[in-house]
Inverse folding.
């Protein structure tokens, strides 16, 4: 009798964990998908470089949410509670079909011998001086 | 001479072989560089909301403190400003200190930090970096107060000093620093910087960790200095795009967790780069990071160019002169005793020696003399460093000066002057040497 209960419990645990795993990797959802929230709070923005409009607790952020858009600054568009928002990539765990760019740098030795002689953006937006040019 | 010896010390001695790594393991720099702008397709300047997102990404790792090395002086219109204000609140709730920098010498009386941000009560620090002949070799002990409460003496600590005091003050109480601390620049690039490579003058790509033999390093330091200097920073560095693209990367996690993070820019045309003795040009954020590194590595007792004697501050140059005097006196005494001994030998019984023996004997005495001078100066320097915290750069100079004086004594100042006059006046014959070939100086020959 005890053995039977133990076997049933083991089967139940395995079944539950497999369900949990399936939810975690969102195997049923195809394409790019946000698997789950990564940070304790997830900020939702109106545009990729816009204002924060909503903050959702980790537990309340929907799992396996399809990514409907991707901005050049890597913000991800998702649907939450019927609204479309942009979420920063570090706040969620996601699955991408494509590859992310590698992070690497090469520092040129020669650049150390010279210093830039101008300020970034100098002259931009200045009113044009009068006279013939 | 003093600054040259400081550079030599950083580049050849202290930097590669003796500077500890405790600071390096606890300080990181998060940079916005050209690649970041390109990767994120986010042209400069960024919106406040963009900075807020980076700061929030950093906060997830629970850093020890975050210093923002960007100035927010101009009150430009930006609907994401509230995001940055909210982020300051998040740092406060998470008990992670966050610091902003204040603009200095602003021509039209602008606020050092735009009022909307200053109103949050976030500490505003003085980012001034002193440069000596264009190179960052020292770091201020005090700075403008802005919104900080002055200490009992009426002064406010400089940026790195304040951050150190807040984060490490209990573990390593900060020693009083007179005027400025002397920066020691490490040369062994942090292992986390393996993602950076460097290109030499020939266009060949190298790792930042290529070892150079001691002899080659010393040779190049004198004949091709730029070949010894590396564009790779000593401090661990990561681009902020890595926070967004690979937040679970083990190096990013290591560099951002429980460290003091300086968040700054490495942008072309931003006019925020400084020469260092070991790297040439680096973004200035690394100078603040190196000062913090020094404070941690030396446990709150950084090297100084001035010392306190009996409650009074003594300048480093004065200390050097005082330190040199006993060395000169000891050498003079030994030399004088030697002359007296030889004079007595002249009058007494003189043993016969071969010319070869005399030659080698003289050479041996000469070498011993030099090493003795080096040893004495080195001892005085070490005593000054260990007991009163005088910078190594200062007593390295003492070594040079003392050895030079020792050499002058060995040759004999009167002989040197006489020899020079003889040469200038066109070969006036020197007096015939006296009895012993071991006698060298004019006064001895006259005797």
């Amino acid at each position: 009798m005890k053995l039977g209960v133990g076997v049933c419990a083991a089967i139940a645990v395995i079944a539950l964990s497999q369900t949990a795993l399936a939810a975690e990797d969102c195997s049923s959802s195809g394409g790019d998908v946000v698997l789950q929230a990564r940070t304790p709070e997830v900020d939702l923005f109106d545009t990729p470089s816009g204002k924060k409009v909503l903050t959702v607790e980790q537990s309340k952020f929907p799992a396996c949410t399809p990514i409907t858009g991707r901005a050049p600054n890597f913000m991800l568009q998702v649907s939450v509670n019927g609204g479309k928002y942009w979420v920063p990539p570090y706040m969620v765990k996601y699955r991408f079909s494509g590859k992310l760019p590698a992070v690497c740098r090469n520092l040129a030795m020669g650049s150390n011998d010279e210093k830039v002689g101008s300020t970034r953006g100098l002259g931009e937006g200045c009113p044009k001086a009068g006279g013939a040019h | 001479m003093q600054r040259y010896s400081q550079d030599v010390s950083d580049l050849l001695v202290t930097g590669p072989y003796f500077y500890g790594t405790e600071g390096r393991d606890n300080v990181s720099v998060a940079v916005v560089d050209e690649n970041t702008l390109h990767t994120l397709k986010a042209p400069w300047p960024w919106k406040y909301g963009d900075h807020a997102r980076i700061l929030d990404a950093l906060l997830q790792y629970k850093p020890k403190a975050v210093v923002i090395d960007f100035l927010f002086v101009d009150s430009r219109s930006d609907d994401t400003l509230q995001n940055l204000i909210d982020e300051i609140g998040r740092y406060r709730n998470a008990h992670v200190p966050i610091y902003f920098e204040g603009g200095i010498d602003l021509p039209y009386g602008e606020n050092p930090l735009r009022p909307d941000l200053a109103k949050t009560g976030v500490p505003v620090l003085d980012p001034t970096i002193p440069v000596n002949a264009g190179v960052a070799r020292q770091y201020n002990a005090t700075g403008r107060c802005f919104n900080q409460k002055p200490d009992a003496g009426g002064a406010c600590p400089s940026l790195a000093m304040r951050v150190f005091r807040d984060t490490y003050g209990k573990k390593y109480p900060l020693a009083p620093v007179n005027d400025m601390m002397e920066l020691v620049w490490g040369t062994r690039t942090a292992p986390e910087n393996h993602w950076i490579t460097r290109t030499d003058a020939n266009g060949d790509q190298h790792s930042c960790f290529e070892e150079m033999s001691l002899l080659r390093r010393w040779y190049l330091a004198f004949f091709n200095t730029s070949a010894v200097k590396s564009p790779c920073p000593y401090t661990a560095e990561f681009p902020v795009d890595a926070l967004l693209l690979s937040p679970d990367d083990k190096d990013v996690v290591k560099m951002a967790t429980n460290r003091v993070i300086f968040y700054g820019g490495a942008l072309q045309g931003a006019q925020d780069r400084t020469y260092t003795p070991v790297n040439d040009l680096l973004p200035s954020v690394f100078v603040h990071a190196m000062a913090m590194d020094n404070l941690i590595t030396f446990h709150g007792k950084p090297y100084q160019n001035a010392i306190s004697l009996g409650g009074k501050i003594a300048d480093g140059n004065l200390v050097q002169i005082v330190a040199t005097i006993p060395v000169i006196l000891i050498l003079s005494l030994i030399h004088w005793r030697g002359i007296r001994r030889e004079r007595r030998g002249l009058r007494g019984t003189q043993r016969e020696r071969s010319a070869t023996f005399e030659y080698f004997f003289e050479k041996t005495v000469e070498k011993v003399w030099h090493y003795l001078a080096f040893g004495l100066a080195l001892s005085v320097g070490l005593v000054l460093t260990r007991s009163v915290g005088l910078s190594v750069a200062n007593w390295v100079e003492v070594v040079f000066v003392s050895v030079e004086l020792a050499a002058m004594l060995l040759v004999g100042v009167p002989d040197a002057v006489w020899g020079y006059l003889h040469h200038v006046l066109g070969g006036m014959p020197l007096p015939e040497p006296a009895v012993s070939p071991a006698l060298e100086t004019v006064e001895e020959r006259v005797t």
Remarks:
- Chain B has two domains: 2-304, 312-446.
